[in-house]
Specification:
The structure is a single chain. The protein is an all-alpha fold. Helix content is 69%, strand content 0%. The radius of gyration is 22 Å and the shape is elongated.
Length: 202
């Protein structure tokens, strides 16, 4: 369907005044339709909104891909609608463990996708760096609260990260070390979330 036809369909069927240039910008990824435009665009193109979103990453994108209204999702996960809308707008989830588990179930998110969608990537990376460099046991509870994973899995992964990091650092500080200055340890910490997801098998 040509951009002119799509723009006409949006105007005729949904009352949205969108230019053909805007449609071209959406196609090329230079602009993103808002929620109302995306839903209407899916109707004009006879597909679901999920088919128009390449790979959902944010809470809003996952919700829209499932075809849920914000109020409906809030109700299903047990959060007040205005509180959910605020969290979605800020890109930062602040639900309880139970609400987080419900969110993951309703949106069909695995642990890794859930952390990304709820804006927890940087928080998780910081927690993992701290667990690797200090006493890992102190970080089991905060990590288990963030992640929809069994506590034993989290314990195993944190212990493994700690051991791998300290093995790298011990190699740089031994008498026979080749003069390395901890670059290997810093590189390990830079990729800590990847090491964590590998440790938990995700």
């Amino acid at each position: 369907m040509a951009p002119d036809h799509v723009a006409y369909g949006l105007r005729a069927q949904y009352g949205l005044f969108v230019t053909p240039d805007a449609v071209v910008a959406w196609e090329r990824g230079r602009a993103v339709p808002d929620e109302q435009q995306l839903t209407a665009l899916a109707g004009v193109l006879w597909c679901s909104p999920a088919e128009l979103i390449a790979a959902p990453a944010t809470l809003r994108e996952h919700r829209m891909a499932r075809g849920l209204a914000p109020e409906e999702l809030a109700l299903r996960v047990g959060v007040a609608a205005h509180a959910y809308q605020r969290m979605e707008d800020e890109g930062r989830w602040r639900g309880t463990e139970r609400q987080t588990a419900a969110l993951a179930e309703v949106l069909g998110l695995g642990p890794r996708a859930l952390i990304t969608a709820t804006g927890g990537d940087e928080r998780l990376a910081e927690l993992l760096r701290d667990a690797a460099t200090t006493r890992w046991q102190a970080y089991v509870k905060p990590a288990a609260k963030m992640l929809p994973l069994p506590r034993r899995t989290v314990e195993f992964a944190l212990q493994r990260l700690h051991g791998e990091y300290h093995a790298r650092m011990a190699a740089t500080s031994s008498w026979g070390a080749s003069g390395a200055t901890g670059d290997e340890g810093r590189a390990y910490l830079d990729g800590i979330t990847g090491h964590f997801w590998a440790a938990v098998g995700s």
